[in-house]
Write the structure tokens for this entry.
Amino acid sequence: MPLYDCMLLFKSHLKREPIMDLVARVGKHVYRRNGVLIDIKSFGTVQLGYGIKKLDGRYYQGQMMQMTMMATPSINKELHYLNKEDRLLRWLLVKHRTTQYGIDFLNEEQTQLELSRWPRSRLYDDEFDHVDPEVYDDSDDEEYRVDEEGEKKLD
């Protein structure tokens, strides 16, 4: 089951009890679908970047909460009943990415196969060990000439 964050933005004038009622309702819904509620965070009252218009007025503040849960992928469609909830200004469901990088991405068999493709001596060779110094000269002395006043000029 993937990990999700459900962000809930409540109207600012609500007391704690109606907020907890809705959070408990979402938690029970997740639990009934064999999900697990992992964490609940409250961010308190937040200032909004713009007013959110509802039937009873425009809101410039809201109370934000975050619920972290493990649930089935169908949870997004199942939570659409929140659209009709008059206590909420907005809600958002975000799926956590479980991206792994590097060797963690490969399992042990794939790691051995992947690393065996590169010869061991080739991994540690320095590409400039074989370069003839006559052919490869990294000095740029000839690139600039200096005039009498000490200023560099391109050739």
In short: The domain at 3-95 is CATH 3.30.70.60 (Alpha-Beta Plaits).
